[in-house]
Amino acid sequence: MEAASQRSQLSGERAQRIVDAMRASVAARGVAGSTFDHVARDAGVSRGLLHYYFGSKERLLAEVVRRDTDLRMAALDEQLARASSAADFIALLRGTLEDLVAQDTEFLALSFEVFTLSRRNPEIAAEFGELVRRTRAQVAQVLRAKEAEGVLVLRAEPEAIAEVLFGLGDGLALRMLGDPGHDHRATVAAGVLAVGALIG
Amino acid sequence: MEAASQRSQLSGERAQRIVDAMRASVAARGVAGSTFDHVARDAGVSRGLLHYYFGSKERLLAEVVRRDTDLRMAALDEQLARASSAADFIALLRGTLEDLVAQDTEFLALSFEVFTLSRRNPEIAAEFGELVRRTRAQVAQVLRAKEAEGVLVLRAEPEAIAEVLFGLGDGLALRMLGDPGHDHRATVAAGVLAVGALIG
């Protein structure tokens, strides 16, 4: 509850500047190297303000990932809503994975970092769990709507399909980024085949 | 090359003690909190020796993950070799995922941490890439052998199927651990259905 009320004060340009500064700092220095001093200087705010809003670097990192996830989910929602067939829907998902690997590696690395932190920090664990639940619910809702429109036939529960889509996407991205020299076209095709068993 | 030759000197009980001490330290203090001083004291070796063998904490972490992966792969190989049908094979994979989530959360967290480090450290990136390639090749080999025995029909390239299996396993484990209050039985069942499209 405290986190939610602090967050509500954080709308606006200044909050966004802090989040952007943290994102840039983590990209350049890693999480371990990104201190409140760095972020405060880069964002042009006082260290005290940063501390007041976020309490800890871990909380600020979770906030960066939360905002990025919300933006990505909104974009995904909008794309998927346009799908006019199961093949179309799955092709959009494949494109999302390919974009993630080509352009947004930092986002993926940050998400895994929040997971790692969540293993030792109950507050971050609560934030991470909330992200997992929210993304699942949101994609499940799109799946249900598409089924109601007659665009998709779902062969498992919408929430379960959503988890498989995210799980496969994150896990494949991890391996594709880990071995960039490998030709992953056959892997992506196999992923499409697997997802096709759930979305007809 | 240097890493490989240093590694060859590292067989034996002392190396294992160092790796075990690092694993225990990371579980208790996280990577950021695990210094060479801690690990040297816990392993009963000098800080200089640790430095000589591993050079950096990140290298030692990569070594922990490499050894754990080798052990897990050997166990998985042995299990999968016994499968007498596609359903059996997929059930064994499902069991591996369930064990990972129930018992080996630290291993998963460490693997993601090595991925995170690999984004900013070329040496760790090389180690991580090697892990990705080795695990893919090893499972692809089991898949090929099982196809040759007439136990499985593969509906995509063995390497591609191996990537999907690891990707889905890691990604689902991440989400299952991130939201432990959720009932994941339907998710696991959907994962089994998806994998069934690749392994008949």
The largest chain-to-chain contact, stated as pair and per-chain residue counts, equals: A-B, 56 and 56 residues
Mean pLDDT over all positions of chain A: 90
The level of helicity of chain A is: over 70%
Roughly what fraction of the amino acids of chain A lie in strands?
under 5%
Kindly report the CATH topology of the largest domain in chain A: Tetracycline Repressor, domain 2
CATH homologous superfamily grouping of the largest domain in chain A:
Tetracycline Repressor, domain 2
In terms of per-residue confidence, which ranges of chain A show pLDDT below 50 for 5 or more consecutive residues?
A: 1-8
Q: How many independent structural domains of chain A?
A: 2
Distance N terminus to C terminus of chain A? 41 Å
How do the SSEs of chain A run, as a string of H and E? Answer: HHHHHHHHHH
Helix-and-strand structural type of chain A:
mainly alpha
| Total count of strands of chain A | 0
DNA-binding region (chains A, B): 35-54
Keywords (chains A, B): DNA-binding, Repressor, Transcription, Transcription regulation
Organism (chains A, B): Baekduia soli
GO molecular function (chains A, B): DNA-binding transcription factor activity; transcription cis-regulatory region binding
Descriptive overview:
Two copies of one chain form a homodimer. Chain A has 200 residues and is an all-alpha fold. Chain A has two domains: 1-55, Orthogonal Bundle (Arc Repressor Mutant, subunit A), CATH 1.10.10.60; 62-196, Tetracycline Repressor, domain 2 (Orthogonal Bundle). Helix content of chain A is 80%, strand content 0%. Chain A is built from ten helices and no strands. Chain A has helices at 2-8, 13-33, 36-43, 47-54, 57-81, 86-103, 105-118, 122-148, 158-178, 185-196. In chain A, helix 5 packs across helix 7 (105-118) and helix 6 runs parallel beside helix 9. In chain A, 40% of the residues are buried. Residues 1-8 of chain A have low confidence and may be disordered. Chains A and B meet through helix 2, helix 7, helix 8, helix 9 and helix 10 of A and helix 2, helix 7, helix 8, helix 9 and helix 10 of B. Chains A, B: Residues 12-72 form the HTH tetR-type domain. Chains A, B: Keywords: DNA-binding, Repressor, Transcription, Transcription regulation.
